[in-house]
Design a protein that fits this description.
Mean pLDDT: 96
CATH topology: Glutaredoxin
Order of helices and strands: EHEHEEH
Number of helices: 3
Largest sheet: 4 strands, mixed
Length: 84
């Protein structure tokens, strides 16, 4: 199981893009579980992962990306993680 958390804030355009990419990749990687976390509602995640910018993408408990990420970068990371 790959656990992907998107730590985001309301009105964050790059966050919406990453959410769309993650939804698309969920079709490709059947063991991918995606969770969107609103940092305004759950500030404890910002503290836990030392978030400095949104979106912050956490994969299996480790920060993988901070800020905007494109589909190729996220797919490459998913392939890497799925082979571990």
């Amino acid at each position: 199981m790959i656990d992907l958390k998107i730590l985001s804030t309301p009105g964050c355009a790059p966050c919406k893009v990453v959410e769309g990419i993650a939804a698309k990749l969920q079709q490709e990687f059947k063991d991918l579980q995606v969770e969107k976390i609103d940092l305004m509602e759950h500030p404890e995640f910002a503290v836990e992962y030392e978030v400095m910018s949104s979106p912050t993408v956490v994969i299996n408990g480790k920060v993988a990306f901070v800020g905007a990420v494109n589909e190729d970068q996220l797919r490459e990371k998913m392939e890497e993680v799925s082979q571990q």
